[in-house]
User: What shape does this take?
Amino acid sequence: MSTQDIYSSFEFSLSSAPATGIDLEAERLVRKQETALGYRIMASWGWGADGSGHITARDPEDTDSFWSLRYGIPFGEATVQDLVRVSHGGNTVEGTGDINPAAFCIHAPIHANRSDVVGAIHTHTPYGTPFSALATPLPMNCQEAVAFHGTQGVFEGEEVNVTDLATGRRIADALGTSRLVILANHGLLTVGTSVASAVGFYLNAERAAEVAVKVPDGRVISPAAAAKTHPSVGDELNGWHIFQWLVRSRVGDPTVVN
Assistant: This one.
């Protein structure tokens, strides 16, 4: 089964879910296509137009390595052929070219620290970056924010340009077992059990940051109400569904990245 088969053979509906029971090669292709589509989704908003931002996808077989976009490829032109696989030690395993150095320094420790993380995304966005200057967790100010109730951390370091693994390890520690980490004065980073859910929840985080920036004194949802709502908006499947909507509304044909 090819990635194109997976993405073109099912009708997206309320009951849709990630493909299961597929072989390692098919799963690898799914993760690579979701990564390339994620970059194109970022580009649809102009995020990463200056090269700032990165998505990584753990390889399903060689789990101590991950895929990311080859440096120099415009995000809006990303394809699966443009992805490079890098080991947690920094060696290129598959593909040609380099990846963003910050992508390696930030993401490698996260993947090494969290066996459950398949996908991770970080970029500099219109609201996530200014909100991060507060160096505080997202307030529970809207439905999107509740997806992070009890599952976010803050990296308080001043290393806004991450160029070493030691800083990346501190970011991984700040993330802990959470879904979101606020990188102080830098931006947002989300992770997921799929690349799709990581990207979907990144949009949730950016929207929550927008509310916080635009309405800093707005009403905050009570902990009890946030806890009650979290299961319905914070499930990994919900992040996967957001990604499917984004592919259809921001990219169009998912096979364009094949």
Q: What stands out?
A: The domain at 20-251 is CATH 3.40.225.10 (L-fuculose-1-phosphate Aldolase).
